[in-house]
C-alpha cells in the first residue's frame, strides 16, 4: 500500500470511524478487519470482540439464521466476483430486548449494502458492510402492496443503491406525514393531550384542548413544574413521578383541579377524568408520560345539581308525609327514605337497602297483587297500588304506592324506579266506615239492600261456576204495621232488631241474612241438601218470629210470611230471583200468612190472576157485580133463626163467582175494602129493618169489618148516623172483627168499639181459636160474641183436641158473659156435640147456605126468628 493509499486508507478509516452510520469492513475471507463505533453500538459489542473474527461468529445470536447466512455469503460472493456493490434488501431479524414487563422479541428488517474496495488490478480487496434498518419502510410497503412487497425486495437484492436511497427518502416522507397526521389528531381531539418527556417532565406535545384547560401559556419545551407551578400543591407532579418511577398507568376520575390561566389572574376550577400513560424508550425504561383526558366540570356540576334537586324533591315529598324509595332494578338494591321507615315505625338503621325488606312486609292477602302491580308498572303500566305493610309493632298499615321508571338501559330495559309511599290507613278507616254505613242497616246491623244485591249477584256467579243451587228466602213480617200503629215506632224498631237477631240464629254462618228495608228480611241459603233442608229452615224462621217479643211497651206477637225461590230452577239472574221470591212471599201472605210458599210457575199465574182480579174488583161495585147473601144464625136450643150474617159475593161476567177468600185480601190490600165494607153495611141495614118488621122484633144482621176499616177514621160514625136515619136501634147490627184488631189495638180501635157499645152495636170476634186467642182482650173490649172457627167444628166429631178446644172456648166465653156462635156446622153430629157443650148459636149448611135476600125472607117466613111463635118456626135439620 503506497503512502497516498495508506494516507487515503487512514483517512478512510477515520471517516468510517466517525460516520454516524454503522460500518463494518471485511476481508474477502469474511474476517472483520474494521468496525466503527456506530456499528458496535448497534450490535452491542466491543471492538476487541469483533476485529479478526469471522463475521458470522460475531453476529448477534438472534441474527443467526441459516437463510440469512446463505443470502449474506451469496452477496459477498457476488461482490468479490463482480467487483460491484451488492445490496440485500429486508433481511429479517428477530431481536429480543428488555422491557419493564419482560423481554420482547421484535421483528426487525435490515438492508445490507456491500461496497467493494478494489486494488489497482480491479480485484476486490476489502468489503465495506453498511447495515440500514428498514423495518418501518418494510411495513409501509407491505401495507401498500402486500402481494408485491416480496417481489420488490427481491428485485432490490439484485443491487441498486439509488433505489435504496429513494426508498429511504420515501420512508422518511411517510413517517413525517404520519407524525403530522398524529399531530392533527392530537390537536383536534376533544379531550386534552399532553406528552411530557424526561425526568423533568418537559412538555413535548400539548393539544388545543390541553391549552383550553390550563390557559394559553408557554408549555412546549418547558418542564411541567416550571410551566404549571399551581399544580404542585395539588399533587399532579407526585403522580407524574409515580408513573415515571413505576411504569404503571394512573387513572383519575372527576379529580378536582385549580388552574390560574393568567399569572396573578383568577383561579378556575375544573373536574377532570384523566389517564397518565407511561411512554417507554427502546431500552424499556420509562421515557415520558402521555397524559390524556376530559374536562368533566359541566357534567359533574350538572350531576351535583341533579343530586341537589333530587334531594330537594325528596325533602319536598317527605314534607307531605310520604316516604320515598329508589330501586336499582339491576342490583335489586332499594334505598328507603327516613320517612318511609318512620311510617312503619322503624328507625333509620332498622331497614337495609334490600328489595325484600319491602316484600317480606306485605300482607299475605296483598302480596301477590302488590307484586303483580309492581311488575306491570315495570312493563309500562302506571303504578298506583294500595296494599298493607307490616309495621314494627306487628300491626298492618294501609299504604298507597306510586312510582315511575326513571332509568333505562340502551335497549330500553328499565334499570331504575323511584316511588313514594303514602300512609292511607286513616283514609282506609274512613272508607271502611263509609262502606259500612253504605252497606249495613244501622238498626239491625244486617247487610242492607245494596249489600244484599251484591251478595246475591256473587252467589249467582258462584253457583253458576260451581254448578250448585241455592235458595233465596224473602221474609216479611205479618201486619207489622199494626205494631207501629198500636205500640209506636220505637217498639217497631226494637222488634225489627230482635227479629234480625232471631233470624241469624236459625241459619249457618255461611248463609246470609239481610234487611233490605222495612219489615222485610232476606236469607240466602247455600250448600243445600235438598228442599227439606230449605223447608226446615223456613219453619225455624217462622217459629222464631212467632215467639213473643218483649218490648218496653209490652209483649208483641207477630208472624212472618216467607217466599222461597231456588237458583237455578226458578230464575237465572238476581232480578228474576228477587221478583220470584217476592211473589212467593206474597203467595204466603195471601194463603193466610205465618207460613212459607215456594215460587212455582203456577204461583206466577196466580200472581197474574190477582193483578187482574184487583183491576176488575175496582169496577165490580160500579157495575153491580157485588151482592150480599145472608146466612141464618140459628139458636141451637130453639132451632130458630136468631139472626143473619151478611156475606159479600162477587159474580164476574167472565170469571164467574169469585171466592171472597180470594178477593177480600185484594180489597184489603188495595184499600177498596172501605168502600165495599160500607156498601155491605148499607145493604144489610135496610134488610134488618124489613125483617125486623116482618118478625116483629129487631132482627140483627152481622157485618164483617176488616182491620183495615178500623184504621180509616172516616166511616165509623157514618154507620151510626145511617142506622139513625133508618130509625134502627144499634143492636140491629153486629160487627164481626178478627182477633188481630184487638191484638194491636190503637186508641182509634178502642174508641170505635166504645162507640159501638154506646150505640148498642154488638161485636163478634170472628175465627176465634185460630190466632192468639187471648182472653185478656175479650174483657177489655166488651166483646159480645165469640165465633168458633169452622176448622174446629169440622173435625169436632173425630178430633178430641178440636172438641176440647171448642168446649173450653164455650165454657170460658160463658164465664166472661159472652155468647158463642159455632161456624160451619154441617152435620147433626157436630150440632149435637156443640149443643151438648152449651154453644149458643150456630150457622152452617146443616141449617142453610148463605142465600139471596128474597130466599132468606122465605126462610124467615117459614121459620120465624127467635121470639116468633109457632112450632113451624123451627128449622128442620138435614141428617
Ligand atoms: N218501626 C219501624 N217500622 C218500619 C220501618 N221500616 C218500615 N216500617 C213500617 O213497616 C210496615 C211495613 O208494612 P207492610 O209490610 O207493608 O205491611 P204489614 O203491616 O207488615 O202487613 P203484611 O206485610 O201485609 O202482613 C210499614 O208500616 C212501615 O211504615 C222501621 O225501620 N221501623
Automatic annotation (TrEMBL):
PROSITE patterns: EAL, GGDEF, PAC, PAS
Protein name in UniProt: EAL domain-containing protein
Xref: CDD domains: EAL, GGDEF, PAS
Domain PAS stretches: 8-83, 309-381
Highest taxon of the lineage: Bacteria
GO molecular function term, any single one: catalytic activity
Transmembrane stretches, start-end: none
Domain annotation EAL: ranges: 610-864
Organism in which the protein naturally occurs: Pseudoduganella flava
SUPFAM superfamilies: EAL domain-like, Nucleotide cyclase, PYP-like sensor domain (PAS domain)
Family matches, as NCBIfam families: GGDEF, sensory_box
Span of domain PAC: 383-436
Domain GGDEF: 468-601
